[in-house]
């Protein structure tokens, strides 16, 4: 049919798959014991993997970045042990479930921020990484609170992640800056067809 094209070209599909694999590789790094809940429930592990979705967004853009995270989460949900510590879809029902779901929003928000700026300067990338991190917190922290039966306590306890996460997003911004310089074709392009319409 003339004028039609694939919803996701082969090159973009390859980027999605490769970045999903990259996020999975980050899961090979062991997590550290997380926060203990008010009721003694095991908390969320401190991992390196949560920076992967942010990198996906700032490097691939909101559309492909979110798709790569979605692919990873689907594979995890069907039982593949792709999360840090060899965890699989069972983690969605635990204290870290909100942070995992938040990865989708994290990649989306980080990608939208970087797509809306023509410059790929370090400050812009850092802003996008911070926004992506906050997006993950918006879902993950309350989820943990609901899990332990104390929303305020869950949010307060989650603050232990902030210092380490700030270090990770600075490193993520530096990595993204280097990638954009080395591979300019990966830069998210702002266009009417590449952005969701918001009214």
For the structure shown, list the relevant keywords.
mainly alpha, 0% strand
Arithmetic mean of pLDDT: 84
Estimated share of beta-strand residues:
under 5%
Quantity of strands, as a count: 0
Write down the overall geometry. globular
Largest sheet: none
Head-to-tail CA distance between termini: 32 Å
Query: In sequence order, what are the helices and strands, one letter per element?
Result: HHHHHHH
DSSP helix fraction: 55-70%
Could you explain the architecture of this structure?
The chain is 59% helix and 0% strand. It is mainly α. The radius of gyration is 17 Å and the shape is globular.
Give the arrangement of secondary structure elements:
Blueprint: H1 10-26, H2 51-60, H3 62-77, H4 97-115, H5 122-148, H6 151-158, H7 162-182
Helix pairs in contact: 1-2, 1-3, 2-3, 2-4, 2-5, 2-7, 3-4, 4-5, 5-6, 5-7
Summarize it:
The protein has seven helices and no strands. The chain has helices at residues 10-26, 51-60, 62-77, 97-115, 122-148, 151-158, 162-182.
